[in-house]
C-alpha cells in the first residue's frame, strides 16, 4: 500500500514538474494573429456570429451522423438473419433523414 502511494505521489510531482517546465520555457507570442480566433479560414471581422458560416457545421454534423450509421451497418452485416428487419428499419430512417436534408436545401454545396 505504501509503494502505491509513493508511486502516485511521484507521478503527480513529475507531472507538475513537467507542466511548470513547459510553461516557463514556452515562447509567449501575444501578437494579433496569435490571439485571434481561427474560424476555418475566415477572417474574423465584427461579431463572431456573423463571421462563421453554419454550412460547415451542418456538413460536419452530417458526416458524423452518416459515419456512425456506416458503423451500425457493419455491425448488422456480420450478424445473423434475424436482424434483417432492424437493418431495413434503420435504412428507412437513413433515407428519410437524407430526403429531409435534401428537402430543406442543406445538401446545396454553395457557401
Automatic annotation (TrEMBL):
Q: Where are the transmembrane segments?
A: 54-77, 84-104
Under the heading InterPro entries, the entry gives:
NADH_UbQ/plastoQ_OxRdtase_su3 (IPR000440), NDAH_ubi_oxred_su3_sf (IPR038430)
Q: Which residues form a coiled coil?
A: none
Q: Which reaction does it catalyse?
A: a ubiquinone + NADH + 5 H(+)(in) = a ubiquinol + NAD(+) + 4 H(+)(out)
Q: What membrane topology was assigned to this protein in its record?
A: Multi-pass membrane protein
Write down the top EC class of this protein: translocase
Question: Which GO molecular function, any one, fits this protein according to its record?
Answer: NADH dehydrogenase (ubiquinone) activity
Per UniProt, subcellular location reads as: Membrane; Mitochondrion membrane
The EC number on file is 7.1.1.2
A GO term from the CC aspect: NADH dehydrogenase complex
Does the record bear NAD in its keywords?
A: yes
Domain of life, source organism: Eukaryota
Arranged from A to Z, the UniProt key words for this protein are: Electron transport, Membrane, Mitochondrion, NAD, Respiratory chain, Translocase, Transmembrane, Transmembrane helix, Transport, Ubiquinone
> Where would you say this protein principally sits, based on its record?
membrane
Similarity-based family? Belongs to the complex I subunit 3 family.
* Function (record text): Core subunit of the mitochondrial membrane respiratory chain NADH dehydrogenase (Complex I) which catalyzes electron transfer from NADH through the respiratory chain, using ubiquinone as an electron acceptor. Essential for the catalytic activity of complex I.
What name is this protein filed under? NADH-ubiquinone oxidoreductase chain 3
Query: Which source organism does the UniProt entry give?
Result: Caenorhabditis tropicalis
What's the gene?
ND3
